[in-house]
Amino acid sequence: MTQAHAKTLRIALAQLNPTVGDVTGNLALAREARRDAARQGADLIVFTELFLSGYPPEDLVLKPSFLKACWKALEALVEETRDGGPGIVIGLPRQGPKGRHNSVAIVDQGAILALRDKIDLPNYGEFDEKRVFDEGEMPGPVNFRGVRIGVPICEEIWNDLGVCETLAESGAELLIVPNGSPYYRGKVDVRHQVALRQVIESGLPLIFVNQLGGQDELVFDGASFGFNADRTLAFQMSEFETAIAVTDWHSDGETWRCTHGPVVAIPEREEADYRACLLGFRDYVNKNGFKSVVLGLSGGIDSAVCAAIAVDALGAERVRTVMLPYRYTSEDSFKDAADCAKALGCRYDIVPISEPVEGFLSALSDTFEGTEEGITEENLQSRTRGTILMAISNKFGAMVVTTGNKSEMSVGYATLYGDMNGGFNPIKDLYKMQVYALAEWRNRHVPTGALGPGGEVIPHNIIAKAPSAELRPNQTDQDSLPPYPVLDDILECLVEGEMGTEEIVARGHDVATVHRVEHLLYLAEYKRRQSAPGVKITKKNFGRDRRYPITNRFRDRG
Is 241 a catalytic residue? Predict the structure, then answer.
């Protein structure tokens, strides 16, 4: 191989945070990123899947005016490339002659070199692309400045459709994959394995560029990466941080190899989960225009972790906490809530609920005459708290943060129009024991990009004491539920694992307890349908991933 055959390519990777529907804003992001890439001498800048529309745009793409706006934004970028600077790979939805497509445009020197329409449209879990897009055709490589690049789109590298192999067989030298791949725990390792399989089967190096940011329940964690053809890691970008990375690629005439690129460590489990909650919460609040948030701070673990996430995401000056005590509120809870708010530096108010609760009970006294006190009266406490928080929200424009964990959401241990009130829930997809793990992690670390303080922001007593809703004297959660380690394991088996009850019992669980938890899980579906959205952390969250009927008489009894 002579030196005359050697080639180089400087590729910039745009791991950015577009907003769904903000075509003008996304175009501005793309323009600024391209200018940055040009200053660094890039030949090509790669954006993510459906970047111009934001991902996932869902039924927005059914509006012709929205598709026209996205196409107009692409035309503006095409014009910009007349300056001789970096070419562009960018995703957008478009109306083509054969249907509506999830497309990628390859643009250079004032022209669209190619339009790639996604073939493999995912239709599982959080994805619903077959509903709004039509399939494209098997692609070939695109000649970009003498380099034949193949551009598979996200899902096309996850399955057995053979897009990468087809591109390799038709002369592609390098695979560039724009993605909209949402976070769940351990997802980076999964992506690496998926990409490595394609590298092995195609014999080509692969660049995986992933979106960053929160979109409703989904968090896109970035963590873009690449592999050389020999399966070695070419580069690894940061997780949960926007970035524009420049990578240098060199070909000896046969194989392309990355000679320069970032290698950033990926956060471990608790840090990754916490930062996902932080990013998803921050983007939901900011992208929807809320200036501040308010939450009930009870002195319990769930509200304390939510308060910490809120302060880390928004800053203490945008977070208001409210203690809403009743006759059963313990002195420990008063102290723990006050200590937590002080450690976080956020506003802390006390609004007693005795008068409104007694007022409700008085108003209902004739209606309830001759009945026993019980759950109805307990729920009045929760609903009074929810009403007060919503009143503060309405008066001051602060979004209410709801604080129920996945264990509670699973079995219905929550009150509709009470503690379930709120606009968003940062811990909705975390089981109770995972909430404790995040609290302990946060007390030892300040996450990258957090606006909150260091040190013990969640008082030790909150973590150490038995959890309780404090709706009656000496109440604990364990009066109504199995111990949380037991409950969480059963729920993970039922929800994430879709396991049968016999399999779960075989793990060492009591059969009656398993049957009861399964019954509660199905029974609470109607509550979950009315719950606030929350950050997806596990592989199967309630909402997008798990869609069970409300009216459902099935019970697994072997």
Answer: no
